[in-house]
Amino acid sequence: MTIDPPVNDHDAFLVVDTQNDFCPGGALAVPEGDRIVPLVNRLARCFAHVILTQDWHPAGHESFASSHRGKASYEVITASYGPQMLWPDHCVQGTLGAAFHAGLDIPQAELVLRKGYRRAIDSYSAFYENDHTTPTGLGGYLRERGLTRVMLAGLAL
After folding, report:
1. How far is the C-alpha of 90 from the C-alpha of 96, rounded, in Å?
2. How far is CA 51 from CA 67, 71, 114, 151, in A?
3. End-to-end Cα distance, the chain
4. For residues 59 and 155, which has the higher predicted lDDT (pLDDT)?
5. Which of 15, 25, 35, 123 would bridge 115 by S-S if both were Cys, CB 3.0 to 4.6 A apart?
6. Do residues 151 and 14 make contact, with C-beta atoms less than 8 angstroms apart?
7. Rounded Cα gap, residues 108 and 50, in angstroms
8. C-alpha 67: how far from its chain's center?
9. Does the reported pTM lie above 0.90?
10. Is 47 helix (H, G, I), strand (E, B) or coil?
11. How many CB atoms lie within 10 A of CB 77?
12. pLDDT tens sequence across 8-42
């Protein structure tokens, strides 16, 4: 496998939310999502710097439909930061669903960035929570490490 342009020491590979709940059988499964795992493992070996994101919700998270009486999954509510899709409970801290897919084999990962752990703010981005003002810390990490280019792969958008 080749990557063009060549990977260098200022490149980072960001592996996004490759967790059980986003794989077949999970609470919020991406169809055939587990099929990317071998390719992600191969790509990760091409990089000196690998970062994993992990959706990491507390039980009762505000983005869960179960936290809103009379609301169903995939309904949209107005949160303090704007529209919020309500999801089935997923990636709850410490559960099997929140764990990385068992086939993910990236022991050289330098950082696991957990997101969505603030009860009242969802997080789709690896850089900012859904209020678009609360940073996750990834930008600072990349700057401090001198990492200037990021390639990514993963399951959740």
Report:
1. 10
2. 31, 35, 11, 10
3. 25
4. 59
5. 123
6. yes
7. 7
8. 21
9. yes
10. coil
11. 14
12. 899 999 999 999 999 999 999 999 999 999 999 99
